[in-house]
Fold this sequence. Notes:
Blueprint: H1 6-16, H2 25-39, E1 45-51, H3 57-65, E2 68-75, H4 78-84, E3 90-92, E4 105-111, H5 120-130, E5 131-142, H6 148-162, H7 175-184, E6 188-201, H8 204-213, H9 230-244, E7 251-263, H10 282-286
Amino acid sequence: MHVFDRSLVRRRRERARPGYPGFAFLEEAVAERVAERLEDIRRRFPLAVELGARSGALGRLLRASGKVDTLIQTDLSPAWAIARAADGPAAAVDEEALPFADGSLDAVFGALSLHWVNDLPGTLAQVRRALKPDGLMLLAMLGGETLVELRDALFEADSEVTGGVSPRVSPFADLRDAAGLLQRAGFALPVADADTIPVTYATAFHLMRDLRGMGEGNSVLERSRRPARRALFARAAEIYAERFAGPDGRVPARFQVLYLTAWAPSADQPKALRPGSARNSLAGALGGREVGTGDTPG
Length: 298
């Protein structure tokens, strides 16, 4: 199923590149959070790949961590990949068709590129196959609560001004879906967690400007091809302010970020015990008395 226009995603990203440093705050914040999660993992990774490297914020932190020996930075945009080649190995790579050999990588990292992937289960399965046994995947992507205020305001304004509704904000995966996809892709020890990065703006127009500057404009295939009327966005900004503005008059925008951490299966990884097979009870460890419920493990 194709939801996104991948060629448009690439073109928007390339058009945004010259002025992108002024709009890189979200990528930089997420890169720092990914790097913090890596600090808790006491491993070195001889060969790693970064998906969606864009400005290189995550790559710089990965190299500075001392845990990655060789990092190959990739991006859907050839222009961004060429820019990253100044830092080290780089390649233009479509996340939907990864070119890496099975069992060739020690780790795969990424920050904020997978929300434009049509076949997310397929991409995760490709990552798992490319990893060596016990290889690490640590990716961050935008989640389902991202830009809910903007989505609501545009939905209502669209209905009022045009008499219909067109997709104007990308759909995002939610946390529960992401956790299930890790298991479906065949990963071991999967963990999915989330946090929210709140940002405030003077008006909804300032938020829309930032999204354009990030190269994150609407790339949904079923979007309306007709130029949007100025009245639509003016009404959306009014609704946004009426419903969500704080006491200072500024409007909030939420960016929910999902963090997907998992390992390629390996025979020497720890495995969960079969239910009911434990030899010691929690009550015994705590010095208490165990009271049965009458139920037996299935």
